[in-house]
From TrEMBL:
Region annotated Disordered, chain positions: 372-394
The EC number(s) this enzyme carries: 2.7.13.3
Domain Signal transduction histidine kinase subgroup 3 dimerisation and phosphoacceptor: 191-256
Keyword tags: ATP-binding, Kinase, Membrane, Nucleotide-binding, Phosphoprotein, Transferase, Transmembrane, Transmembrane helix, Two-component regulatory system
Secretion signal span: none
Organism per entry: Streptomyces hiroshimensis
Protein name: histidine kinase
One Pfam family hit: HisKA_3
Transmembrane segments: 22-40, 52-70, 76-105, 135-157
Domain DUF7134, chain residue ranges per copy: 20-162
Amino acid sequence: MDVKTEETAEVRPRKSRSVRDWAVDILCIALAAVIGILAAEALRKDPDASRALLFSDQIVGALACVALWMRRRWPVPLAVTLLVVSIVVPTAAGAMLVAVFTVAVHRPFRTVATVGGLALISEPLQAAIRPDPTLRFPAATATGVLLVLTVIGWGMFVRSRRQLVLSLRERARRAEAEAQLRAERAQRLARERIAREMHDVLAHRLSLLCVHAGALEFRPDAPPAEVARAAGVIRDSAHQALEDLREVIGVLRAPGAEGGGDRPQPTLAALEELVEESRQAGTEVKLDQRVTDAPSVPEATGRTVYRIVQEALTNARKHAGGAAVSVIVEGSPEAGLTLGISNPPGDGSGAAVPGSGQGLIGLAERAALAGGRLSHGPTPDGGFRVDGWLPWRP
């Protein structure tokens, strides 16, 4: 907040005073009145002072205290006025100090320096025009200057403390807004991750459906038992795909959800089940898992390996029908997890299944986010190979 904006905000009068404002105003008026009474008692000891002068000092001092009620609306004009009055009427000195304190609290340093300088100049003038009978001129001047400096310093301290509190509140509001933005970004990233999960899972399920439906299409004269078995696999795969889709949609409907649904997510320990499922679909898969303690693999790493193998098997069914797939997984906590999936060219059996080509690209990004790497591409013999490495992070 610059000085101009700050002054504009402070000059604008308040619509209503709070209970705290009332209490502070009453306390300031009472303090000014006490200082005025002490000054009046000191003036009574002056043998040259007339009773009329003392009475007028008390009246002006009382009016100066009442004028403090306007210190919030017009702090600078009130302070300057009371400075002039206090030079000839010592009983208004208390009200003048309160007005100077108000300026130090509510106005910037340049204004405070100007008003404070006038207050410091007024002290020796007041000691010369209306001397205190109990103090000599140097002592009275030094006392007045000390009181003015104390009041200004106290007011500037209060002002700096208020500005600090305001800045901390603004910082807290800003931090809360940034935290909300981070939460929204995290939620968006979580939903994008869920969308990738949906692609991996549904692509696997639907590829099974396409394989078996294609087999029924190309072999309408198949034995009834084989047709029934294929129909059962199609039914189970369709049911499982619907369950996965329902689970993902349920997560997307839950704001801020981080997990992937009520069912546990697959890990490396579920790789055997995935391979067996592909074998039942008619794909020859050779699994060589050299990780001795698969359940000890971190869940996030194991889930990434599972998804990579799942996507590779799905692509093999899509583009290399009838080809045998080789899956090798090995690793340790020190060396990390290494996996390789390869297949030779297909024999052309089965129906062609369309694909978007984004599955392995998404998995490469997922592996990179996990701190690993993933590469894929055709082999010299016309087949396809996927190689990856992931860190063994707890």
